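User: Is it possible to get a 3D structure for a protein together with its bound compound? The compound here is manganese (II) ion. I've pasted both below.
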Amino acid sequence: MDTVKSKTLVNLMEKLLDQSIEVVDLTQVLNEDTPVISLPDPFVDTKGFSIEQISKYDENGPFFYWNNFTMGEHCGTHFDAPVHWISGKDHQSVDEIPVKKLIGEAIVIDIKDKCDKDPDYCLTIEDIKEFEAEHGEIPPHSWVLIYTGWAQYSNDHEKFFNVGEDGQPHTPGTSVEASKFLANERDILGVGVETVGTDAGLAGGFETPFPNHYFMHEANRYGLASLTNLDKLPARGSILIASPLKIENGSGSPARVIALVEK
Ligand code: 23J
Ligand code: MN
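Assistant: Yes, that's possible. Here is the predicted structure of the complex:
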């Protein structure tokens, strides 16, 4: 068996071990309180996470501890495949996505201040252009992460869903124009957010309903939802790795999402 000549990966491993490259966990914990999206009538919601013990060093398994769990594909930190949306129905399911497309540079666009002032705030083309003027054009094969600060509410269902007196969720997202722009004018892998889904709480009522789902998946791009720790990433230069399960014909999957950040 040959040895590889380049030491790039061995050097990477050394930097991981001496912590000059940090691994940041962008994943929320899964438990029975993990929030799942609540859609308006007559749509049917996904199941949340539940767990059932099989054995714990007892009569059902004296040497071992293990559980069964149940959950929807779109529960907790998860990956949206193009077939999740009708506009992407002829594209790939989660098992068909080339693994190379699970890894990309993380581009972090910070709109937290605007979302603090207005929970319905949606990323605009101007926000993207402003980011690009400072950090350069969003490169091909990158994950665009929208930092809204919403992960700070992930343990408080009331604040996380922020249902108003109108009975509607007021959570930030992406405007129709910005979704279209990112999907069609940039060659990204997809978009990642901290909210329960990749669209704003009110996005069902937009002129194209759920534009981030519609335009991203139409363009064969992906989504990541319920991320956390985006504040630990630089605006550019970190590497995101998403690892959805290989569910045959799956529309998405719970995922462990991590990022490599050079200190
Ligand atoms: C189905 C319908 C609407 C939405 C979603 C799913 C999600 O957010 C999701 O998890 O993909 S907005
Ligand atoms: Mn989803």
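The mean pLDDT is 97. The longest helix spans residues 125-135.
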